[in-house]
Amino acid sequence: MTAFIWDLDGTLLDSYGVIASSLRQTLEELEVPMEEAEIRRRATEGSVSDVVNYAAAAAGRTFSEIKRRYSEISGGRYREITAMPHAQEALEETAALGALHFVYTHRGSTTLPVLENLGLDRFFQEVVSSLNGFPRKPAPDALLYLLEKHRLEKDRVLYVGDRTLDVACAKNAGVRSVLYSPSGAGTADYVIRDLLDIRAIATK
After folding, report:
1. I need a labelling partner for 177 at 20 to 30 A (CA). Which of 2, 96, 146, 184 fits?
2. Comparing C-alpha atoms, which of 101, 141, 136, 98 is closest to residue 12?
């Protein structure tokens, strides 16, 4: 049985706008200058933590203090996050084909509220977030945990994400990677431009 493990931000969730503007507000409060376009680039090519680390060094504050403030700002805006085009249809149609679905994301306490707000939580056997405490990607620990707990066969598991970090995480766990890239750019076992393209992979 095919099992898809999904990243969320930039993959199933159209959330980078909320993330970038929340980071911008956090940096403005600290009087740390950075254009929103640069904030977005750093957050998407790297992670939110990359921007927070930069702000901590620039402002002479602790990482945890700044991350907490960012979480307060972004957490209050989770209802603004929408699903990526065809996210629900892709989950519904692959589930109808017998595929199992899981989540592994760096998102924290807003993970379940966002999924519930969008009506997507019902598709997943288990959701693993930063609250579980696993090492961050590209470390494979969270994926290996899901494989062992749910007795998934490695050659039937695919990790779906939108960044090279996700592709590296899949490789480190010994599972196939699916890169969601509307531009078609990037390298992975599979590159998809539209989430509905996942249907063809589910039957392989």
Report:
1. 96
2. 101
Tokens of 108: 């924290």
Place of tokens 């503007």: 21
**Percent composition of the chain: helix, strand, coil (DSSP 3-state, to 5):** 50, 15, 35
pLDDT in tens, 118-147: 999 999 999 999 999 999 999 999 999 999
> Alpha helices, DSSP H only, in the chain?
16-30, 36-45, 48-59, 63-75, 87-96, 111-118, 141-149, 164-173, 198-202
Q: Mapping DSSP to helix (H, G, I), strand (E, B) and coil, where does residue 109 land?
A: coil
| Residue 10 three-state SS | coil
Q: Is 49 buried (19+), middle (13-18) or exposed (0-12) by CB count in 10 A?
A: middle
Q: State both tokens at 155.
A: 């050659």
* Sign of the torsion angle spanned by Cα atoms 92, 138, 143, 202: positive
How far is residue 106's CA from residue 175's CA, in Å, rounded to a whole number? 19
Minimal CA–CA distance to 201: which of 171, 173, 179?
179
The closest alpha carbon to 12, from 147, 120, 146, belongs to 120
* 100 touches 125 (CB < 8 A): yes
Task: Kindly report whether the global pTM for this prediction surpasses the value 0.85.
Answer: yes
Task: Say if residue 204's pLDDT is above 80.
Answer: no
